[in-house]
Amino acid sequence: MSEVRRRLASWDSIIIALTVLVLVVASVGVPNFGTSRNFTFLVLDLMPIVLVALPMTFIIVTGEIDLSVASTLGLTSSLMGWFWNNGLSIETIIPLCVLVGAMLGAFNGFLVTGLGLPSLAVTIGTLALYRGLAFVVLGDGAVADFPWNYTGWVTGTIGGGAVPNVLILIVALALIFGVVLHATPFGRSLYAIGANAQAAHFSGIRVARTKFWLYVASGAIAGLVGVLWTLRYSSARADNGSGLELAVVAAVLLGGVSIFGGRGTLPGVLAGVVLLAALQNALRLQDVSGQALNIVTGALLVLSVLLPNVASSIRATWHRRRLRQAAAS
Amino acid sequence: MTAALVTKSKRPALSAGGLMKTRELGIILALAILVIFTAVNHPRFLSGQSIRDILLNTAILAVMAAGQAVVVITRNIDLSVGSVLGLSAFTVATMMSTNPDLPMIAALLVGLAVGAVAGLINGVLVRYGRVPALVVTLGTLYMFRGITYSWAGGQQVNADELPRHFLRFANASVLGVPWLVLIAVVVVGGVSVLMRNYRVGRELYAMGSSPQAAELAGIRVARNLLGAFLLSGALAGLAGVLFAARFGTVDASAGNGYELTVVAAVVVGGVAVFGGSGTVWGAGLGALLLTVIGSALAVLDINQFWQQAIVGALILFAICADRLVAVRIARSLRKRDSHV
Questions:
Q1: What pLDDT, on a 0 to 100 scale, did the predictor assign at position B9?
Q2: Whose CA is closest to B81, among B279, B281, B229?
Q3: What confidence tier does B3 reach under pLDDT thresholds 50, 70, 90?
């Protein structure tokens, strides 16, 4: 019974409920929100955040962070344009870009696990480095003449219906990451690392190696999103995805993942992403400026950690009072 | 190097201090090499106007870096500074354009006050809400920016709407030193002395070294932490006033993304993100180095696009160097302990 109550009161179930509420209210109350056309836009808008958030969840669960993801996205987007200008075929470019992303992630992973540097500082450094290299590669120009069948696939829907093609990709990757995190020993080991890296190490978990591969995965996904982003807007630019890292971290934390590691679930994170995207979309349809929504995003982010803290301290006070009453009687 | 360390390590406090000094010495050396190399190739790099421009560009960054350094030394971080700068700059610019007769000091005080309130909100949430500083200030980064946007909408305050004396403040100087630079020097110098020589400064270092130990030792952690965030916010607010006076045109996006440059200056300046070490004037030097790199690239006619990549490489280099120093200190301490 108390287990069920604890589950219900946990932040990720609250956020899932809140997301469902927002979706229902918006579909009923906001004109055009529930249309299939708007659904396509909603999915396309949340695609970069949700995909990057998957490996980011893993990394934050282990108690680390990767702020360089948006710059990795920008650099792969730049390189994609550069490769295309140099006559490579799109079939070669796409795997090449994912590979470059994985290598950029491996560099982060090496600095964090090989040299033992703090991930916050390392990835702020590579955030600047990768974005800078993106500008070195492509300058402030853009490459736009990508083949139509690829750009059309990214923005298109299955059979011209309501379900966007990229949704298959999102669902497939989310399923893989979800199963790995919640149903495999590897997933459990991530929580162990986040709860206490030293204890995990003594329990036989290869902490450094695990973290290294998480950074590789994060880089590879960021590279893939760089490709998708470029194809969606049919424009390879060095500043693609600027600032996305903060939106991703905000969505992950909003979904109930602890910044200290060891706590959080993937369904919670997915709900966090959908909540932010749906709110933004609904407010835009109501002609509220997207920038004003920043207030809501920020407040939700702080509340996601503040409310559980307040709840637990109230509970602790009650508990102490009850103990004192018991002692008095 | 190792030998020198071992002999010095009889007085551990001094040896650690000596190493820290070499840390700032490294930045000064890098600065000197960069300036000499650029000046040899382009003597105009050392002309009065060029130096003036560099110092003016450094001033705003250095003021923010001083506050950020204090927060980072306590093992926290303040990512909201860019948004606080924007909020303060827009508040002050709007105030000055509607009340052109207000004196400059009023603008400075309002900017400081706006920033102080923002910083206090951060501090209260971190301390009493027990929310990690990264989460709080990431949240307030969005909130303060959102407030500025919903207030400003698409409008901006242009230079011709601002009173003359306000704009002149950015270029006016005392004894040849621009006001902006003077303010930056006073702020960085003052906070450095506070952190080095005063009790509260040493307590802030202690809190960064070990938060639990600091609490057990009876340090007034709550007061100090609120003070650190308040200072960082107030200085970001001050930077907002300087920003408005220097650039004249202010819209809701002023200072967007500055937080990363400020953190970069602090990290390059030798303040470790794990707290407890580094100096405020080192952070000021970090701000100067980042600005000089930008100017030198322009003078040397190197593609401007390299600048950000170089800054990134420099951050990585700086934290690698810090790590090396930390490993050496740990090794020398272990050696010393084994002799006892």
A1: 38
A2: B229
A3: very low
Question: Distance (Å, rounded) from C-alpha A205 to C-alpha A197?
Answer: 9
DSSP H helices, A146-289, are: 148-155, 165-183, 185-195, 197-202, 207-233, 244-254, 266-285
Kindly determine whether residue A132 and residue B310, on different chains, have CB atoms separated by under 8 Å. yes
Q: What are phi and psi of B173, to 5 degrees?
A: -140, 160
* Nearby residues of A3 by Cβ (< 8 Å), 6 or more positions away: none
Locate all alpha helices (DSSP H) within B128-253, ordered by sequence: 133-152, 164-171, 179-197, 199-209, 211-216, 221-247
User: Does the pLDDT value for residue A15 go beyond 90?
Assistant: no
Per-residue model confidence (pLDDT) at position B18: 54
Inform me whether the pLDDT recorded for B303 exceeds 90.
no
- What pLDDT was estimated at residue A3? 61
Q: What is the pLDDT of residues B218-254, one digit of tens each?
A: 999 999 999 999 999 999 999 999 999 988 888 888 8
Quickly name the fold that domain A14-328 has: ABC transporter involved in vitamin B12 uptake, BtuC (1.10.3470)
A287 close contact with B: CB closer than 8 A: no
Range A183-219 burial, b when 16+ CB lie within 10 A, else e: eeeebebbbbbbbebeebeeeebebeebbbbbbbbbb
Chain A contact set for B140 (CB, 8 A): 298, 302
Q: Which of A200-214, A291-305, B289-303 is predicted most confidently?
A: A200-214
Task: Judge whether A121 is closer than 8 Å to chain B, CB to CB.
Answer: yes
Flag whether pLDDT at B6 surpasses 50: no
Cβ pair B12, B329 in contact under 8 A:
no
State the smallest CA–CA distance between residue A41 and chain B in angstroms.
Answer: 23
pTM of the prediction? 0.85
In chain B, what percentage of residues exceed pLDDT 90? 45
pLDDT of B339 reads: 61
Chain A: give the shortest CA distance to residue B314, in Å. Answer: 8
Per-residue confidence (pLDDT) for residue A7, from 0 to 100: 58
CB B264 within 8 Å of CB B64: no
Selected residues 215-274 of chain A with any CB under 8 Å from a CB in chain B: 238, 243, 246, 249-250, 253, 259-260
- Nearest-CA distance from A172 to chain B in Å? 30
Over residues B155-169, the pLDDT tens digits come to 888 888 888 888 888
Which residue of chain B comes nearest to A288, CA vs CA?
Answer: B150
Which tens digit of pLDDT belongs to each residue from B110-169? 999 999 999 999 999 999 988 889 889 989 998 999 999 888 877 888 888 888 888 888
Q: Which residue, among B140, B242, B107, has the nearest Cα to B187 in the 3D structure?
A: B242
Question: Which of chain B's residues have a Cβ under 8 Å away from the Cβ of A121?
Answer: 267, 273, 315, 319
Cα separations in angstroms, B312 against A120, B10, B85: 13, 37, 23
Q: Do the beta carbons of residue B213 and residue B206 sit within 8 Å? A: yes
CB A167 within 8 A of CB A175: no
Question: Measured at the alpha carbon of residue B193, what is the angle toward residues B190 and B195, in degrees to the nearest 5?
Answer: 110
Q: Which residues of B touch A139 (CB under 8 A)?
A: 303, 305
Q: Which residues contact B9 (CB under 8 A, 6 or more apart)?
A: B15, B332, B333, B335, B336
Query: What mean pLDDT is predicted for residues A24-36?
Result: 86
Q: Count the Cβ atoms, other than its own, within 10 Å of residue A140.
A: 10
Contact A124 B309 (CB under 8 A): no
